[in-house]
Amino acid sequence: MTTSTPTPTAGLAISTRGLRKTYRNRKGRHVAVAGLDLDVPLGGVHGFLGPNGSGKTTTIRMLLGLIRADAGTMSIFDREVPKHLPEVVGRVGAIVESPKFFPAFSGRKNLQLLAEAIDRPRSIVDQVLEQTSLGDRGKDKYRTYSLGMKQRLAIAATLLKEPDLLIFDEPTNGLDPAGIREIRNTMRSLGEQGKTVLVSSHILDEVEQVADTVSIIGHGRLLASGRVADVIGDQTATSLRVGVADPVAAQRILTEGGLLVRQDGALLVVDGFSDGAEITKRLAAHDLFVNELVPVRADLESVFLELTADEGLETVGAAR
Length: 320
Hints:
Elements: E1 12-25, E2 28-41, E3 44-49, H1 56-63, E4 71-76, E5 79-81, H2 85-88, E6 92-95, H3 107-117, H4 123-131, H5 147-159, E7 165-169, H6 177-192, E8 196-201, H7 204-210, E9 213-218, E10 221-227, H8 228-232, E11 239-244, H9 247-256, E12 260-264, E13 267-271, H10 276-284, E14 290-296, H11 300-307
Parallel strand pairs: 3-8, 3-9, 6-7, 7-8
Antiparallel strand pairs: 1-2, 1-4, 4-5, 9-10, 11-13, 11-14, 12-13
Helix pairs in contact: 3-4, 4-5, 5-6, 6-7
């Protein structure tokens, strides 16, 4: 797991160093981003994780030149921004707020109008509809679209200029499970096509399923970054979830044997011990027979909770 300050590296899609933004409010000054060092590698999906209020949207707005940073440096494709933003903006597509479409027009017509506005050929409209799995619904009016389809149409709009970098800020907010799955599949597909996708989210399990690399922030500063597998750490189970007919007696027996045991509903969790055969043997010696034995592996959510334990932040990553 990487928790130290990253070393600047060439060839990144996004890089920030010492990025800082402070707002004034009625209570005084609020530090939204506090010296953030962020690296997003080229290609694939990069999860930008943090609880609400941790500085994700503020960081994205600074990168896109929508608000000015107080301090620090930023670069996109090795070009300093916002100074050189006009040179790279054509390679960037972003959804920071819900885009506006004409409800009475079809999805295809909306995209055709946008394509004309940015001087793109109409032929690309069908291409981006297929990329976002909307090819068979392109003729339908926008007002008939589900929330998931509306979000995919927004992604299609960002693809009109064939960007190399796509930035999505909480793209699954408000979507039902089917809509979340659709957006997840779209992001994964774009990453597999060689594009760089930066997706900010507080829904940890969604990011874990789609991201190749991840950065976790809290109070506007970096807490961990790297490949998802590295941030999670060793996938070898270090605990066991045990099911048994009499969990109270089983807990007593295992605790007396020197093991750290806690209850998790109707099950027991034996922490720091992964020898299932030994658990089974000890309980069977007292005529208690295991009916469930499952290794407990670390996941991104548990890492996040550990990292933000002292941050004083409201963690909503468990929301599904």
